[in-house]
Design brief:
mainly alpha; 0% strand; globular; disordered N terminus; transmembrane; Pr6Pr-like; transmembrane helix; membrane; Integral membrane regulator
């Protein structure tokens, strides 16, 4: 017998054997970023370790946690731990408003420490003898975490997320820190050690007029730094990490 031709076969096809449109494959989800997750977890650990070491060696935790250094490192520990979790679980990254705030505050911590508080010629030096624990904590809180935050921003974060309005929004915390430090100092007994956290905020040394001048100078410097971060975030290159071996749907053959 003759074999049926394709046209004959098609005439006798039933709806059950007809071609059924193939359902579109689901979009490939964004993959985990294990290196970014591990690095950010280490940054959070470094900040937390510095805080714990300082706490162990401190006899006045109220005074310790009044420092901008400690508060900014707490923000780094929380935000980087959160970002590490999101990178590990393939979730969207944190808002640039949050990551930019953490970057600005910890940058302020590092820059003010190295160029003002550790500089004998600045007029606001806070150099003193430190115990081994204080020395380790000092390096973690003022050097390691600021540099690590900058590395994460430059290498592990996509550019272009910072907006111009973020620059002045980020200043809310540094500006609120000023009345916090002054009110706390006013409530303490004159002569109390560490009554004011920093020499440029010490009313006994500077007077309220001097404090006002310092606040304007530092405030303008912090705003300039925030604007610089926004500008650099827009012009810096995107350093892409390794891509998934499976291409997104419709982009071409498997690689």
């Amino acid at each position: 017998m003759l074999e049926p031709t394709s046209s004959t076969a098609n005439r006798h096809s039933t709806p059950d054997t007809a071609a059924v449109p193939t359902a579109a494959a689901p979009a490939v989800p964004a993959g985990r970023r294990p290196f970014a997750a591990a690095f950010r977890a280490l940054v959070a650990l470094a900040a937390l370790t510095g805080i714990v070491l300082d706490s162990i060696d401190s006899d006045d935790l109220g005074r310790l946690f009044s420092y901008f250094t400690i508060q900014s490192n707490i923000l780094v520990a929380v935000s980087f731990a959160w970002a590490a979790h999101r990178a590990w679980t393939a979730r969207p990254p944190l808002s640039p408003r949050i990551t930019g705030a953490a970057l600005l505050f910890i940058s302020i911590t590092g820059l003010v420490f190295h160029f003002v508080l550790s500089n004998d010629s600045s007029g606001f030096s806070m150099t003193s003898e430190r115990t081994p624990l204080e020395s380790i904590a000092n390096q973690l809180l003022h050097t390691v975490t600021p540099l690590a935050a900058a590395f994460d921003w430059l290498v592990l974060t996509a550019p272009g997320g910072f907006l111009l309005r973020h620059a002045w929004q980020w200043l809310a915390y540094p500006l609120l820190y000023l009345p916090f430090a002054l009110i706390r100092g006013a409530l303490l007994t004159p002569g109390t050690e560490g009554r004011y956290p920093y020499p440029f905020l010490d009313v006994d040394l500077q007077g309220y007029g001097g404090i006002a001048v310092n606040a304007v100078v530092f405030g303008l410097a912090f705003y300039a730094l925030a604007l610089a971060l926004v500008f650099l975030d827009r012009v810096r290159p995107h350093l892409r990490g390794p891509r998934n071996r499976i291409s997104p749907l419709g982009s071409g053959p498997l690689k």
